[in-house]
Structures are given as C-alpha cells and as structure tokens.
Amino acid sequence: MPIKSTQSAVKVRPIRKVLIANRGEIALRILRACREKGIATVAVYSDADRAALHVLHADEAYRLGPAPARESYLRGGLILEIARKTGTDAIHPGYGFLSENADFAEACEKAGVIFIGPPASAMRKLGSKTMARQAADAAGMPRVPGSVKGLASIEEAHTVARQIGYPVMLKAAAGGGGKGMRAVTADSELAEAYTSASSEAERAFGSGEIYLEKLILQPRHIEIQLIADHHGHCLYLGERECSVQRRHQKVIEEAPSAVVGEELRRRMGEAAVKLALGAGYTNAGTIEFLLDAEENFYFLEMNTRLQVEHPVTELITGLDLVHLQLAIAEGRPLPIAQKDVHLRGHAIECRIYAEDPDNNFFPSPGLITKLIQPGGPGLREDCAVYEGWRVPLDYDPMLSKLIAYAPTREMAIDRMLCALEEYVIGGIATNINFFRRILTDPDFRSAKIDTGYLDRLLAKPQATEAGAEAVPIAALAAALFEAAAAPATSTSVVSAYGSEWKTAARKESLRE
Amino acid sequence: MNGRTRRIELPADLSGPVHCSIDGELKQIDVHLLEPGVLSLVINGHAYRCILDEGPAGRAVLLDGKRFVYALDDPRSLRSRRGAAADAGGPRPIKAPMPGRVVRILASAGDVVEAQQGILVIEAMKMQNEMKSPKTGRVVRIAVAVGDTVQAGQVLAVID
Question: Which of A99, A470, B35, B65 could form a disulfide with A305 if both were Cys (CB 3.0 to 4.6 A apart)?
C-alpha cells in the first residue's frame, strides 16, 4: 500500500545482515523473516544449543559459551563483538535475554549497530515499572488507584483504603509470588491483614514494607499491540486477551478479545499510542492493561519488545510484525495507516510447555523421542524442537506455540482441539492434554475468563475422562508394540519390570 | 487399566489382518506398523492411530489424544507386589522428578520433619521446585549438596 511520504530527516539504511541474539522458536521465526527478505543471518548459541534448529538454519553461527544464560545469551559484549566481526548491520534481540536491556540497546547504538527495538531512552522511560507509572500518569493513562509508596502505619493504610474504596489489596513492596499479599473487603479487617501481610513480607523478603491498591475484581488481562516508526507514526494493531494464566505465566492467548468492542478498542488503542509517542517509542511494543467488568481499563506495564504471543495479532491483522520491525529499523515509514488496520477472524495460541500437569507442573526437560505435528487449514506452529532433540534444562520450558485461526472464536477453539488431539510429543511430559480441559470448559467457551480463571479451574475436581472403550485398544496396541520391538518369536512372555523375554508361555498380559 | 490386568494373545505374524484375543474375546484386526512406535489399527471398520511414548517415567500408548500408561506384567513375577509393599513403611527416598540443580537445602541429617515439609529446592528451566518430605520422621541423610546437578530419579534425601 502506498504511504504518505513525510518530510523527515531519518535516512533509510538498508539492513543486509542480522544477528539474532536469542534461541528457540523466536530465533527461528526471526531468522525465517530475514531469509524471506534476502537478509543474511548470524546465529549465536550456547553449548546446550549446538544442535538447535536456529543454528542449523542460519547462514553463520558463533558459540557464546556454556549453557547458563549468564555465560551465553546474556553476554552482550561478546554478542556485539561477534556483530562487528561478522559485519552485521542489525541485532534482533527476540524476547527475554537482552531484549529489554537498555544498556545493551545503548551499546549497540554506540557501536553503530542497529538495535531492532526501541531506542534505549524510550526503553528506560517505559520499561521500568516505576518510570512507566510516571509516564502513564503524565499521559493521563488510568492506573489502578492506590498508594505509590510504602505505607508508614496502619493509620495511613486506613486513610488510603477509605480514599480509594474497598475492596483493596495489600502488597509487599519487595514482593512477588503472592507472598505478603492480602485482599481486604472492609475497614474492620484491615488492621489484622496489614499486620500479617507485613510480617509475612518481612520473613520472605527481609522488608515488611506494604503498599495498598484497589482490588480489581476478576480482572481480564488485555494488551494492545503497538508498532511505531521513526517518522512519528504509531499504530495500534488491536488487542490480545491473555487472561488464562498460571502463576502469572500466560498459557493461552487470543485475539481479538471476546469482550472488547470497537469503541473500547479505540479508547485503549489511542491511550496506548499517546503513551508511546510521548516517550519517543519506536518499533514493536505492547501495553498491558487490566480490564474490569465495567470496561474500565488500568495501565499495568509496557513490554518494550516483540512478544511471545505476537502471532495471534499477525493472523487477525494479516500483517507480519517481524517484517515491519525490520523495515522500521531500516528507517522506512510504516506502509499503512491506522485506517488500514482491519481485524478479521479469530486466533488462539496455546503455549506448549515441557512440564507435567499431573505432577504439579514440574518441568520435564529431556529427549524428544517422537514428534508428530498437527496439520490442516488455519494452523500455524512456531516451534524449534525436533525428534531427537534434547530439551535443555537451562532455559524456559516452552517448546512450541500452536496457533489456530478461524472465522469465529468457537471455530478457532474447535480447530485447536482437533490439532491438539493430533499432536504428539513423546519422551517428555508436556501440557498438550491439559489444554483440552480448558478448551472444553463451558466458562472458557463462553469467554467467562479473568486472571483467576485457571486457578479456579485447577481447584475443581477433574472429571474422570471418558474413553473407557479405548482401553482395550490401547492395551492391544501396547502388546503389539512390545511384540514388534522384541525378537521374532511367537511364544513369549514379557515380564513386569525387567522386560526380558521368556520363551515359556504363549500369552502376554498387560497391566495398565 | 487402573490396576486392571488384561490378557492379550497375539499370533506370530503381526502384519495385515490377524486374529488377536483381548481378555479372551477374539477380534479380527488389520495391523500396520507405519514406523517404530506408530501403529495403525483397523477393527470392524474403526481406524485407530496408536503411538508408543517412551520416556524416563515409563511407557504409554497415546490414542485419541489420551495417554494410557502401562507396564508389562509377568504373572509369575512377584517383583511388582514386593515393590508396593516396600512403600508402606520404613525409610522413604526423595527422588528428583526431573533433571536440575540443587539450589537450597532446607534440612539436615538428624532433623525431625513433618510430612510435606520442604527438604530441598531444585531448579530446572527457570523454575524452583521445593521437594517435600513424603512422611513425618527423621532425615536419615541428604545425598546431595548445593550446586549439584541431579538426574531424574536420583535420590536426593532419605526420610525415616
């Protein structure tokens, strides 16, 4: 689409070679976008990732160091040195690792290497929670009301709580992980909650400092995708709903949100654009909000990078965010305007993790002995594992992102259910089957979700799965597998745990 | 399934249409092994895709998106029953459920601990997981040190 050309001093600087300072599916996704544009790629890897797919598909590859991230993917100095040595024009940081490290972005700028992301100055303004709150206040962005600093006394807690109105949430200033947090619904409960939260925080974090915020009941996590160029254009590319979370980790994301209408989308989008433009933000970024039942939205934080869940936005907008990132980094103006952004259909993403839902979601690194990926229309998979790949224990347990796209939300959910049924990852435990529980849950299907939804679902007793008729078939299959794996003899018994074959009886019996 | 034992009888030649018996019931089955660990069965016109999943935790058949864990059982062996009996009392090990690194040790040999009390913390894939005591008792020994890399199934501590 032709764009209005703006008078701007920004010169276009073509990118011919990109170093991808990341690993896993995002490194591969960025690498593919570069290849599509004819841009040469440089991969970096740790010792645990020598056989990873991002190394296999890159034009050049350089070792960073041992497996721990501190000794490999977080070595900004070494990565810049490799960039210089290889004649790299630009570094794409992906997400995690160095992606939100303003010092690294600044070091790239100083070294004359393009950092594919916002300038260090904008990252500093919007990336830190406290600075971002100030910027949000300055931009007139609504925030969850509460005390900005720690409370000095129980009396102050009473005063602030009455000002903002109950219910309120007490939180440890140094906190995290739910420690030192108490929900308070009335004045009479406050003193006791304050004392216990403070002593819990003292024990957990060595500081009993407590602050207080209005408790947003059953909030939804809604985030706005932004994309901004160096010519003063910033667009919002609709929202994503990421309310299905466990331990503050997103599990399912979708776009659009079932509860965000055009008017609310416009209000949230324009507020997000205003904040970004005010801070001189460029490239891709996301502003996260809490949304309450009355359609009030509250600023949560900004992520100054490409996000894990960006594919759902790509599918409903028809845009390629990494291509746009590259073009923006070259200094080109955005090829579209806000009026050209149209949302079409519905996309859902499931994050496939190497973790065991039947065993407290313990991580399960290890060898992938079997991989059968689903197919069919409307499916996308961003994945960087393969049969024979050993999932290292040093990094995030995400194996793959499976994304279903369809004309409606209901169709997208059903498409995802079928895809998950086809999907096989053998050798390690994964959460593939766990998604079935969510996607068939009536509350999820009718979009009655909020950030506490998954915890409530997990607390419910699990219905025993139907499928008793499949048991004899499974038992038969097990016997056939054992027979196929064993030396050809018709007269064998397989023993319980030793698995040595004996040539006595004619029968195999299976205990499942 | 769920502790139930099933008897399966198979013929010597396992390709194409064969007769098998499941708990004494004879079925005609068309068997096709696509590749090691991937099996197609057609029974009375119904098609099934069965996949063998082998991991450190044991073996399972994946069928219709469900997982059926199994163990082969020799009826003459009492090993499994003896294993079950050992669980009832006596010293109990805490084993690593996954490979990882020991980041903290919360109890020492000789300590009296409650059931579900944290004994040590293992980190894997950016997550810390507290290993809890399986019973109320005394710590017999801690078998690892902070910083150790451990394998799945490795004994970390013993509680009696």
Answer: A99
- Backbone angles phi and psi of A352, in degrees to 5: -85, 115
Contact with chain B for residue A475, Cβ under 8 A: yes
Q: What is the DSSP letter of A188?
A: H
Cβ(A136)–Cβ(A200) under 8 Å? no
Exposure pattern of B45-69 as b/e (b: 16+ CB <10 Å)? eeebbbbbbbbbbebbbbbebbbbe
B92-95 β-sheet, strand order:
B92-95, B155-159, B137-142, B112-113
Question: A-chain residues within 8 Å CB-CB of B51?
Answer: 370, 372, 424, 426
H helix or E strand, kind and range, residue A383: strand A379-383
**Residues in contact with A257: Cβ distance below 8 Å, sequence separation at least 6, in sequence order:** A220, A222, A239, A240, A241
A225 and A237 in contact (C-beta within 8 Å)?
yes
Catalytic residue from among A23, A75, A124, A305: A305
Select the residue of A360, A369, A474 nearest B68 (Cβ to Cβ): A474
Instruction: Indicate the angle between helix axes A24-36 and A321-329, nearest 10 degrees.
Output: 70
Distance of CA A178 to CAs A172, A361, A449, B141, Å?
9, 18, 20, 32
Name the CA dihedral angle for A251, A254, A257, A263, rounded to a multiple of 10 degrees. Answer: 130
Query: Residue A496 and residue B97: Cβ atoms within 8 Å?
Result: no
Which of A136, A161, A135 lies closest to A146, judged by CA?
Answer: A161
pLDDT in tens, chain A (512 residues): 444 445 557 889 999 999 999 999 999 999 999 999 999 999 999 999 999 999 999 999 999 999 999 999 999 999 999 999 999 999 999 999 999 999 999 999 999 999 999 999 999 998 876 778 788 888 889 988 887 677 888 999 999 999 998 999 888 876 665 677 888 999 999 999 999 888 888 887 788 888 888 999 899 999 999 999 999 999 999 999 999 999 888 999 999 999 999 999 999 999 999 999 999 999 999 999 999 999 999 998 899 999 999 999 999 999 999 999 999 999 999 999 999 999 999 999 999 999 989 888 988 889 999 999 999 999 999 999 999 999 998 998 999 999 999 999 999 999 999 999 999 999 999 999 999 999 999 999 999 999 999 999 999 887 766 567 788 889 889 888 888 876 544 444 433 322 333 322 334 455 54
CB of A399 within 8 A of CB of A351? no
Prediction pTM value: 0.82
Nearest CB partner across the interface for A424, out of B3, B27, B62? B62
CA distance A46 to A94: 16
**Would you state the structure tokens that stand for residue A21, as one six-digit string?**
């300072």
Strands (E), A136-247: 168-172, 182-184, 210-214, 220-228, 234-246
Report the complex ipTM: 0.73
